[in-house]
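User: Hi! Is it possible to get a structure for several chains at once, not just one? Here's what I have:
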Amino acid sequence: MYKMHLLVCGGTGCRATQSKQIEENLRAELKAKGLENDAQVIITGCFGFCEKGPIVKILPDNTFYVGVESEDAAEIVEEHVLKGRRVERLLYTDPENKEHISDSKHMGFYQKQIRIALRNCGFIDPENIDEYIARDGYFALGKVLEMSQTEAIEIMKKSGLRGRGGGGFPTGLKWEIAYNNKADQKYVVCNADEGDPGAFMDRSILEGDPHSIIEAMTICGYCIGASKGLVYIRAEYPLAITRLQIALKQAREYGLIGKNILGRNFDFDIELRYGAGAFVCGEETALIHSMEGLRGEPTVKPPYPAESGYLGKPTNVNNVETFANVPVIFLKGHEWFSSIGTAKSKGTKVFAITGKINNVGLIEVPMGITLREVIYEVGGGIKDGKMFKAVQTGGPSGGCLTEKHLDTPIDYDSLLAVGSMMGSGGMIVMDEDDCMVSIARFYLEFILEESCGKCTPCRIGNKRLHEILKKITEGKGEPADIERLKALGNVIKDTSLCGLGQTAPNPVLSTISNFEDEYLAHVNEKRCPAGQCKALLKYEVDENLCTGCTLCFRNCPVGAITGERRQPHHVNQSLCIKCGVCLEKCKFNAILLT
Amino acid sequence: MDTVNLIIDNKPVVVKAGTTILEAASGIGVHVPTLCHMKLSDLNIENKPGDCRVCMVEVKGRKNLVPACCTEVSNGMEVNTHSIRVINARRTVLELILSDHPADCLICPKSGKCDLQNLAHKLGIREIHYQGEQSHYRADTSPAIIRDIDKCIMCRRCEMMCNKVQTVGVLSAINRGFYSVVSPAFEMNLDHSVCTYCGQCVAVCPTGALTEVDETGNVIRALSDPSKTVIVQTAPAVRAALGEEFDMEPGTLVTGKLVAALKRLGFDYVFDTDFAADLTIMEEGTELLNRLSRKLSGDKDVKLPILTSCCPAWVKFFEHQFPELKDIPSTARSPQQMFGSIAKNWFAEKLGIKREDLVVVSIMPCVAKKYECGRDEFKANGNPDVDFALTTREFAALIKVSNIDFSTLPDEDFDNPLGESSGAGVIFGTTGGVIEAAVRTAYELFTNKPLPRIDFDELRGMEGIRQATIDFGGLPLKIGIAHGLGNARKLLEDVQAGKSEFHAIEIMSCPGGCIGGGGQPYHHGNAEILKKRQMALYREDKNKVIRKSHENKYIIELYKEFLEKPLSEKAHHLLHTEYFDRT
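Assistant: Yes, the chains can be modeled jointly so their relative placement is included. Here is the combined structure:
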C-alpha cells in the first residue's frame, strides 16, 4: 500500500507544458530517496484548471500544486513527501486576499462546480481499468443488465438527461425511438467530433475517463438492441485515441465488452472511426456519411438516424459528454440526477471557459447557475481588471450575450430565449477591447471554412454575409449594409439544410441586436470603438504634446511621418499603414489613436 | 392504402401517405419551383438532395421553412407555398445562386434551355442584392464533353447520374464551402478519367456547366468547301426527338423533314445509319449464331453470352471496368463506324474520289459518338472513317442558323444506296431494339423458317433489366437486356462470376437507350418524353415494308458486290474491331 499518491495531470494542456517531464522527475526523485514503495506517481486526466497548469495533486492531504515546473520535482519530494511540509510557493494564491489555498475545494474555481461527467478526470489513471472499477466503474452496466431494456430506458427518460452536443434532445426518448425501430442490426455511435473553437470537454473526458464512455455505450447498446458501437473521433486527438484504445483492450480482456457480457446473452463491441476534423461532421447525418466513407455532408431529416442511420440501419448517436453522464444515472438513481438543475434542464453542463477571463479552463456546473456566477466566481472575473463586454456561448452557432444577460440561468431554454444557445459548451468571454463586428466576422470566417458547401444559403449566403462584414470593418460600410445583414441572415437561418447553416448567422444577428451602436459607429462614423479595426484607426500627432524629438519619424517604416527637429510632427494618412510603431515609441504621449 | 389530409394554399388535399409536399401541390395545380430536384419516374431515377433550397415552403408550426421536394406530407399539415416569407426566401436563395454565376447568358450554349435562367425569369428577378466574389475553376475540354464549372450550381444531378445510375463514379463534389463544385477527383481532366462520355451528366445539367463539344462550325466549313463531297448519316433515335427542338409534340416522327433539312443544308448525299444498323445485325447476328453452334457442338472455349457493341460509352465502360471480359462482346463495330467504314472504303471508290475528299458527318443522339469517331482504330492514315459527329441538339442549331423553317418542310426520302433500311434498323434507337432486330434475323438464319411473328413484346419496355427466352426452333435462347450502365454492371458481374445464363445480352448506356441519349433535346426530367420517343420508333418500324435486316435489298447487294458474306475476311477487316484494357 502506498501512503501517498502524486497525481500529475496528463491532459493535453498540461502535457504541452511539460507534465511528462514532471512525472519522470518525480519518479526519479522518489527512487533516489528510496521512496518508490511509499509514494506512487499517477498520470490522470485533466483537472480542468488549465490556466494554472501543469497541476500536481497530492493525496491523501488534497494538496493542489499549480504552475509546477519539472525542476520543482525535487522540492516536492524532499519537502512534501519526505518531510510532510507543503511547498507554499506552488500553492494557488487567492486573487482577492492573496492567501495560499492548498485544497482545491476551497478555490473559487472549484467551489461552485459539481463534477458528474468529469467525476474521474484528474482522479484516476485513465490507462488502468482497475482504478475505474474501484470507483464503481462498470457497476452501472451490471445493474442495467439485470433490468429489461424498457426499464432501463424508462430510468433514462426519468433522469431528464438531454443531449450535451448542443441540440438538447431528451436522451431517453432518443434511445426509446431507436429501441422501437426493429432491425437485424443497430448501431450505437459516440460523437467525439468536437469542433467548437476553444472547446475541449469531450477530449478531456476521453483522455481522463475513457471507460465511462465504453460503459455508457455498452449500456446504450443493451437498451436499444445494438451489438456494435462506433466512436467517431477526430484524428487530431491522438492522446484520446490512444487512451480509448487501451481502455477498449482492457474492457475486452475483462469481458466487459465482447461476447456474452457479464455472462449474459448480450454481445457488444466498439470500434473507432477517425474523422478528418470537419466541423460539420459533428452533425449526425454528416457524421454517419463520413463513417460510411462518403463526403461529410448532412442530408435532410427525416429520416432520422434512429430510423435509417449508419449503413441504413437504426443508429443512436450521442455525444461524449452525454454518455459520460449515463453510468452515474444508474449508479445514483434518476431521482438524484434530476434533483440537480432546473425544471427542464437536469444535471450539469461542462463548459470550456476561455477568452478574457482569469481562470481559463474546463468547468462542470449545475444547470441553472447564472452566467454571472460562472464568469465572476468560477472564472475569477475579467483579466487585468478590464470591463466585461460580452460572452459567447454555443460556439460559432451561438450568440453574444451582454451585461444585461448576466443573470440569465444557464439552461437550454433560457439561453435560447435570449438569442444564444447551450451548444456543446464553448464559452468565450470578451472585454472592452473586443470589437463586436470583428468578432462576428471571425465566427463567419470559421463557418466559411467549415461549411460543407451542399446547400445554397450556407454555401453562398454566409460568404456574402462575410463580405459585407469585411466591408464594414474596412471602413467601406454603408447604412443599408446593416439591414442587408439582417435580411440575409434571417433567410439563411430559415432555409439552410442543417444546423450549421441554420445557426451560422447567429453571431452576426446577436451582435447587431446587442451592439448596434458599434455597427453604426463603423458604418456612419468610420470608427471602431474598441480600436480593433485597423483600417478605421487613425494615428495623429498632438501638436501641443509633440516635442519634435523625431523618434517617431525615425521609426516609421513607411516614411509617413514628417516634421522638423523640435517642431511638431505630422502623420501623412495616405501613407500610414497603422502599424502603431509611432505610438509605441513616443515618450510624450503625443500620438493620438482615434 | 393510407391517405393523408392536408391543406396547401388554403385548399384541402387528400394524397397517399409518403407523398411529398411537392407532389401533393402539383396534384392540385400548384407548381412549386424546383432546381436541383429531378425525377424520371418510370426509370427509377431521382435526384433529391434537398440542397438548392428553391422549393422552400412554409409549414404551420415548423420553426424553419421546409424543402417541398423532400418533405413528406402528414395529417393536418398546413402548407403555404407563396407567403411573403416564402417568396422572399426563395428569391434570396436564387439571387445568391445568381451572384455566384457568370452572367453571360447571351452567349451561353444553354441559353433558352437553362433551368436557372427560366427560374430567374419565373421568379421575376430584376436585381441581385448580394453581389460578391465569384468562384472560378479551370475549364476542361474532352473529346466529347466540355465542363465550364464556373456555372456549376451544386445541384448534384450529374453526380447522381454518374454514380448511382451509371456507376461510373467520375463526378463528385470536391472542395468545401463556397468553393465546392462537382468535378472529377483532384480536378482531373475528364479525358484522364474513366468517363465513358455517355453524356447523361450533360442531359441533366440544369445550366451550361456541362455541354457537348460543338462541331457545327466544322460541318459548315466542310459544306462550303467545294473540293469536298460531304455525306451525312442520321441515327434512328434522332427522328423521334428532333421535332421537340421545333416545338413539336414529343414523339413526333420527323424522318421526312429531317431528310429535307439535311438536303437544304447542302449535304451531297443524305443517308441513314439505320442502313448500317441492318449491316450490324448481319455481322453481329452471324457472330451470335457462330458462337451458338460452336457451343452446341461442344466447344468449351466459346464465349457466351455475346454482348452487343453498338454503344461507344458501353465499350469504354467495360474497357475501364471489366477489361478481363473484353473477349465477350461482339467484335462488330457500331452502326456509326460501319457506315463510316463502308462510306470511306467503298462509297468513295464508287464515286471515284479519295477518302480524304469525302467528309462523313453523323447526326447522333449521343455525345460519346464524338469520342468514338476519334478512336485510332477507326482511322486510315489519320483520316477518320467518320469526320464529325453532331448531336441532335447541334443539328437543330445548324437548321436554325441556316434559316430553315423546319416545321413547313416537305417530307423527302433518303438517298441510295446507303439510305434504305428495314424496321429492324429503326428500333436500334431504343432499349431492347438491337436484340429484337438481331432475333428477327438470327431466328430465320438459324431455323431456316420464317418468323411466326415480328413484334417481340417480351423484349420491349422501360424496366432497367429485362430478360426473355425466345424459342429458336426448340432451342430456348435466353436473352438479357440492360439500359443504364449501373444495370449493365449487374449483368456483367454475373458474367464475371460465371452465373449468367444468357446467350445474348443487349446493353445501352443511356436510360431508355439512344432515345434518352446525352445528345438528345433536353427532357428536363420528364420521363414521358422518353416513352413517347420510344413509341415513335416502334411506330416507324411497324410502317416499314421490310422489317428484317437480312431482307434489306441494299444490304444483300452490298454483300454480293463487295463484302461477300458476313464475317468474311473483308467484313472482318472493315466492320469489326478490337477492344483495349484501359485500366
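Chain B has three domains: 3-122, 140-212, 214-583. The radius of gyration of chain B is 25 Å.

User: Great, thank you!
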